[in-house]
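Q: Here's a chain of 220 amino acids. Please give me its 3D structure as tokens.
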Amino acid sequence: MKNLTKTQTAVIILAVVMTVLSFTNLLNLQINGEPLKLAGLSVIVGIIAYFTTRKTNENKNDGFNIKTFIGALKDKKVILLIVLLLVITVVRFPLEKIYLPEYTEHLRARAEDFLDFANLPKLLLELIVFALGEEIAWRAFFQKQTSKIMPFVPSLIITSVLFSLGHFNFGSPLIVLYDLFSVFIDSIFYGIIFRKTDNAWCSFLAHFLANLLGTVMYLL
């Protein structure tokens, strides 16, 4: 095996750090009775990792190129994936209300530390920032780098599992499992869109629209 370059070593270390941080959500760490949510730091690590290691890509802008954003959206398959994701979001909401009413409160408990539901302009900005940050970290960095050392499907599944764990919140086992499964499916869509476009702006658009639609339906 050839010696790893400094950049390749950094990629591995940062990917491992993101993985470990995602699993910390399962530990129920607390300080003075308040939950210590370290998993969110995986996004910060991923953003830093992307911008410090992107020279390992064939083009340093691979994975996050605003110049190719509009062109990538001309692919009908990408638009279809985004529309399908939004349709699933719409269909899922009334079913959750009927069969899993506790899920709404679980979702609020998971999101209340990050989203300000009382201030709509701030909420919109938060949705943009969080979705963009997660796509840079988990798609432009983690998925792209792991796709270099393994087939796409395992990379997609691993990325989506870790992404889901980063959204884990304690609660009723059934509700928690449903929540993780929902996030996992969303992540699969984001990952496929990123794969087809090699552009986190495209997966960000899908991510933001799905979160925005879900938030609007939640607030109605």
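Q: Can you summarize the key feature?
A: The first strand starts at residue 30 and ends at 31.
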